Amino acid sequence: MTINDRGEMRQLRKLRRFLDFVVSRLFFVTLLCALFILVFYLAMNTANIWILIDEGLDARTGAVLMQKGTEGLSHYFREEFLVQDPILTVGTGELSPYRDYTIKSYRHQIQLLSVWCWPWESTAQADIVESVPYINGTLKKEVRTQVILENEDLMSPPAWETRRYRVTLVRNAGRWKISGLRQIER
Prior knowledge:
Blueprint: H1 3-65, H2 79-84, H3 86-91, E1 101-116, E2 123-139, H4 141-150, E3 163-172, E4 175-185
Antiparallel strand pairs: 1-2, 2-3, 3-4
């Protein structure tokens, strides 16, 4: 080996070390960017799901307490769910415990216990606790005298039962909707 060959070998080793350095740094930068993108989409899905659950269940509670229709609920819930939901069926029907009351206001609370959805999946699940700690309402005039004669305990509306649910959500065309509420405990 000549001195010229040794110099070229040294230069090739330096070039190889430099390329190893560049490739390793590019790999870590790419990995870091992928991690940031994954975290961003997880946070975005979690925020969208949280808002949908909070607003959707508040609208559902309002439909039952205020005796509003269920027309606006299809914005939050799938139609199949609305037809089968026992709280909506009873709460907006003739057997509603709130039909004899004029509800002026209420406070609806959702506590999100857990939520998980991979960015590439079209379904998600969340565990929540739904409660309505405050309902302000009075008996309707046409029922008031009859209730006073029978039982004075019914002057204020019945309490809303606090429940823990597992919520199933489905994404269709980029939009989340609640497709199921399974009661875990009361």
